[in-house]
Amino acid sequence: MKFPLSIDYISKIKKQIGVDTLNNATIREIVQISTIIQKEVDNEPLIRFDKGIPGLPPFEIGVDAEIKALKNGIAAIYPNVEGISDAKEQMSIFYKKFMNLNIGSELCFPVSGSLQGSFASFIVLSKIDAKKKKILFVDPGFQVQKQQCEVLSVDYDTINLPEIRGNKFEKILKGYFETGLYSAILYSNPNNPTWLCLSDVELKVIGELSNQFDIIVIEDLAYFGMDFREDYFTGQEPFMPSITKYTSNYILLFSSSKIFSYAGQRIAMLALSENLYKKEYINLSNTFKNISFGKALINETLDSISSGTCHSAQYAFAAMLQSINNGNKDCINALKKYEKHAKLTKNIFLKYGFDVLYNDDLGRPLADGFYYTIYHPKLDSEELLHSLLQVGVTAISLKIAGSKEDKGIRICVSQIKDEQIELLDARLSMINSIKEKFETNEVVIHYQ
Amino acid sequence: MKFPLSIDYISKIKKQIGVDTLNNATIREIVQISTIIQKEVDNEPLIRFDKGIPGLPPFEIGVDAEIKALKNGIAAIYPNVEGISDAKEQMSIFYKKFMNLNIGSELCFPVSGSLQGSFASFIVLSKIDAKKKKILFVDPGFQVQKQQCEVLSVDYDTINLPEIRGNKFEKILKGYFETGLYSAILYSNPNNPTWLCLSDVELKVIGELSNQFDIIVIEDLAYFGMDFREDYFTGQEPFMPSITKYTSNYILLFSSSKIFSYAGQRIAMLALSENLYKKEYINLSNTFKNISFGKALINETLDSISSGTCHSAQYAFAAMLQSINNGNKDCINALKKYEKHAKLTKNIFLKYGFDVLYNDDLGRPLADGFYYTIYHPKLDSEELLHSLLQVGVTAISLKIAGSKEDKGIRICVSQIKDEQIELLDARLSMINSIKEKFETNEVVIHYQ
After folding, report:
1. Which of A116, A419, B53, B183 is the most exposed place for a label (fewest CB within 10 A)?
2. Do A71 and B63 touch (CB under 8 A)?
3. What mean pLDDT, rounded, does chain A reach?
4. Cβ contacts of B25 on chain A, cutoff 8 Å
5. Structure confidence at residue B446 (pLDDT)
6. pTM for this entry
7. Chain B residue closest to A18 (CA)?
8. Of A51, A266, A287, the CB nearest to B308
9. Rounded CA gap, B321 and B252, in Å?
10. Is A80 in the same domain as A195?
11. B289: domain CATH number?
C-alpha cells in the first residue's frame, strides 16, 4: 500500500479500533491506528507526531547506575516509600541550584512516574475539606490527569489558558478561587500541548491567590528547562520560573521521562513544602490515621498504591540528578534536538499553508521545544487529522487535551528522525489535492 | 547498650516514633523502632521477625535479563499498560503448567507490585453495582490491602478464617454473600500471617457461591508454591489449589517478591478470566468510558495510576517465569531455606513455653514456610511483643493483620540468618525473668 491512503481505508481502520472520529481518539487509540497502518505500508515510514515519547537514548549515567545497583542485589530489597537517600538529596540540591528553592531532602519522595504523584495527590486533596472537592486544571493540558480524576470520581473544572492571559488573568482566576470549591490547581510549565509558558508575573498571581484562598498548587515540571529561550542550567539567575517563589502551598512533580529520556522506568519525584507536609486538616481524619497532609499523602496513600518505587530506577534517578547538579549538561544539550526539529518542521507546515495555533506567548515568540500546535485555515481538526493520516503523518487533536478550539492539532516532534524532515516536505506536498477535495465537499467524512 | 533492654528504654523509643502500643503498631513503625534500637546496640544484632521481606538474593536470571534490557536502551521507552509480550506469554504458560489453567497471555497485565493490582481492582469493584459496594476480606490478612480500601473510601468487612473452617464454612460464607453487599472477596493462599492454606474443598465452596451470587474472587498468590507439604512445580497433579477450577469470576495476583526474591523492583502480574474481562456492568458508565470490567480496569484505571510498569523489570519477570516454566527449580529450592528456618525457630519457641497459635490446618499439620503465628499462655500480645523486644527479637502483632485473637504475634522467618538460630535460643532463655515480672504484675506497661 502507498500514500496517500484512501478515506475508505482510514475508515476501515477506525472501525477496527472502535474509534468514531480521530478528533475524539485518545493518544492510545491513535498509536493503535498508527501501528496497524505502519504494518500495512512497510518501506514507507509513518511520520509520527502523536505520542510524547522520548526520541533520544536514555541518559547513560542513569543506565550505568541502575545496572550497578542491580549487580549489588538491590532487586531483592523492598524500597521504602520515602525513597533512597541519594535520590532525595540530589533532588533537593537540584531545586536549590536550578530553581533557587530551599526544600529539604526529607520532603522529596520517589513516585512511579509523575502520574502516580498526581494520582495520590488527587486522592488526598479530595478529602481535605468538605467543600473544596474539586481540582482546577489549566487547559489545554495532559489528558491523563483528568482521566485520573474521573477514575477517582473527583470533580474538576478547567480554565482555558490561551483565552485568559494578560490583564484578565487575575480576575478570572480569582473568580474560580473565591467559589471555595477548589482544593487545588494544576498546570504544567511549559504547557503540554501548546508550549506556552506561564510567566513569572502569572505565577505570582497564582501564588498570591493560592495564599489568599488556601489553595494548593500542583506544578508539573514534566518539561523542566525545555523552554530553550532561556538557559536555566547555569546555577544562576535566571532561575526556572516557579510557583515556589510565591507560596508554600505547593506540590512539585519532576519527571525523568523527558529531561533524562528515561520514560521506560517510571521514575519521578514528588516534593512538597514543609509547611504543606505538616499542615493538618481535620477532615482527613474521616479517611486517614494521620491528619497531616504529608503523612496522609506519603505514609498512607502513596504507600498503598505500589508500596514504593522500583528500587534500581531510584539509583538511576539519583545518578542522573547528581550528574546535572555537578555541571554535566550532556542530557540538556541532547534535548536541543527537539528544538531544532520543532523549528524545521514548523517551517515545512507553514510552507504548505498551515499555521501555528498558539504562537503568541505574552508578546514573546513561542519557544521551540517538545510540542507545538498547528491548524489549517480551510480544515477543521477532524479533516486535518484525516488528511495528514492519509499522507502518513500522525498527530492528536487538541480536543482531547481539553482545548476549546475546534481547529487545532498537537505536533510532538520527539519521534521524527533527521532523515524524515525532507520526507515530511514530500508528504505535505501531497496534501493539497486531498485538502481541495475536503474544501469542495467532494469528500465528506462520515462520522459513525 | 545490652540486652535485655529496659521497659523505660522501650517506652522512650515508642514515644519517639509516636506509637502507643506495640500491639497497634504497623509493620512500618515496628521497622522504625527496630532501626533505632539496632543503631544503639551495635555488635548485638536484633533478630528480625517483623517485615516479610525476602531473605535471599534476587533470582539471578531476572537480574541478568534486566541488565540486558537496560543495555538495549529500554529505559527510554514508555511501557504499554498491556505489558511486554514475553512476560504475558510466560505468565500464561506458567498458569497452564503449574495450575492447569487456560488463560490467554492477552489477559495478563504487569502491575507495580501486586498491591497496585488490588488497588486498581478495588477502584473498579466499588463502581460495578450500586448495591455491591463492599469488599469481603478473609482475615487474618495483609493489612495494606485493607488500608487501600480505607484510602479509597471503599467499605469492607472481614471474616475470620480460623473460626469458620470445616462444616460451618459454606453456611457462614453464604450468609455474607446473600446480603448482596459485596462485589468481591479477597484471600491469600497460603495465608499471611497464619500460613493456613485454603483446601480444594473450601475453594470449591467459594467458587460455587461466587457463581451463585455473582461475586468476584481475588486470589492473591503472593506465596505461590510455598506450601512445601506438596511440590507444585512438577507440571503434573497435584496442581496448586486455586479458585480458577471452580469459577470464571476471578482476578489472580502473582507477585515476584517472594517466589523470585524480587521485591525491590515492584513487578507482579494481574490476570483475569476472559469472561470477567468482557463482562459489562452498566453501572461502570457512571465513571468510565468503558463498561466492560477489563477495559475499565486496565485501559482506564491501571493506565491512570502509573502509566505502565517499570520496563526493565518486565524483562526480568519474563525471564524468571520462562526459566521456571522450562524446569529450572533453583529459585524454588532456595525458598526451602524458609521452611528449614520455620522448623528450627518454632522448636526453639516451643522449648521456652511458647506455642503455635494456628497449628491445625483442617487436620493436617501446618506447613512450614514464610510465616507462622505464636503465643505465650501467660502473656497477652502486647506483653509478648515487649518481652521479645527487650531481648532483641522483633515481630508484629496479629491485631494489625485483623486477627480476633488478643494473644498472638506473627513470626516471619525470612530475615533470620543461619548463625542467628543459636542466638535466638540464648535470647529466649533471657525471657523467663522478664515474663515472670509481667506475670507477678511487677511490671505493668503503661499504655499512653
Report:
1. A419
2. yes
3. 94
4. none
5. 61
6. 0.95
7. B290
8. A266
9. 16
10. yes
11. 3.40.640.10
Residue of chain B whose Cα is closest to the Cα of A296: B151
Residue range A329-371, pLDDT digits in tens:
999 999 999 999 999 999 999 999 999 999 899 999 999 999 9
The residue ranges of DSSP E strands in A350-439, in sequence order, are 355-356, 360-361, 364-365, 371-375, 393-394, 396-397, 409-412
Consecutive H or E run containing B373? strand B371-375
Last-in-domain residue among A279, A299, A325: A325
Residues of B in contact with A222 (CB under 8 A): none
- Chain B, 92-131: which have a CB under 8 Å from a chain A CB? 112-113, 115-116, 119, 123, 127
Q: Same structural domain for residues A296 and A365?
A: no
**A residues 165-194 lying closer than 8 A (beta carbon) to B:** none
**What pairs with residue A135 in β-bridges?**
A156, A184
Contact criterion met (CB below 8 Å) for A75 and A308: no
Cβ-Cβ contacts under 8 Å between A and B: the total is 193
State whether A358 and A270 are in the same domain. no
Closest alpha carbon within chain A to B316: A75
pLDDT of amino acid B126: 98
CA distance B120 to chain A (A): 8
Distance separating alpha carbons of residues B35 and B39, to the nearest angstrom: 6
Evaluate the omega torsion of the peptide bond into residue B238 and state whether it is cis, within 30 degrees of 0: yes
Do residue B151 and residue A300 have CB atoms under 8 angstroms apart? yes
Residue A386 covered by a domain: yes
Are B206 and B97 in the same domain?
yes
The pLDDT of residue B448 is 45
Distance from CA of B17 to the nearest CA of A (A): 13
> Are A79 and A188 within one domain?
yes
Both B105 and B248 in a single domain?
A: yes
CB interface of B with A, residues 214-233, below 8 Å: none
Q: Does A63 touch chain B (CB under 8 A)?
A: yes
The reply to whether A285 and A348 lie within a common domain is no
Are B77 and B115 in a shared domain? yes
Q: What is the full per-residue pLDDT of chain B (448 aa) written as tens digits?
A: 889 999 899 999 999 999 999 999 988 899 999 999 999 997 889 999 999 999 999 999 999 999 999 999 999 999 999 999 999 999 999 999 999 999 999 999 999 999 999 999 999 999 999 999 999 999 999 999 999 999 999 999 999 999 999 889 999 999 999 999 999 999 999 999 999 999 999 999 999 999 999 999 999 999 999 999 999 999 999 999 999 999 999 999 999 999 999 999 999 999 999 999 999 999 999 999 999 999 999 999 999 998 899 999 999 999 999 999 999 999 999 999 999 999 999 999 999 999 999 989 999 999 999 999 999 998 999 999 999 999 999 999 999 888 888 789 999 999 999 999 999 999 999 987 787 777 777 777 765 4
Question: How many angstroms separate the CA of residue A439 from the nearest CA in chain B?
Answer: 33
Q: How far is CA B45 from CA A321, A340, B27, B55, B83, in A?
A: 35, 59, 19, 16, 42
Contact with chain B for residue A1, Cβ under 8 A: no
| A311 and chain B in contact, CB less than 8 A | yes
Q: Could you tell me if residue B372 is inside a domain?
A: yes
The predicted structure's pLDDT at residue A447? 53
Domain CATH number, residue A406? 3.90.1150.100
Mean pLDDT of A246-254: 98
pLDDT value of residue A446: 61
A56 touches chain B (CB under 8 A): yes
Residue B384 and residue B355: Cα distance in Å, rounded? 12
Q: CA gyration radius for chain B?
A: 22
B448 assigned to some structural domain: no
- A295: how many CB neighbours lie within 10 A of its CB? 18
Whether the Cβ atoms of residue B209 and residue B244 lie closer than 8 Å to each other = no
Q: Where are the alpha helices (DSSP H) in B224-310?
A: 274-278, 293-295, 303-306
On whether ipTM exceeds 0.85, the answer is yes
Question: How far does A317 lie from chain B, in Å, by closest CA?
Answer: 11
Structural domain boundaries enclosing B383:
7-52+331-439
Please indicate, yes or no, if residue B447 is contained in any of the structural domains.
no
Nearest CA in chain A to B125: A151
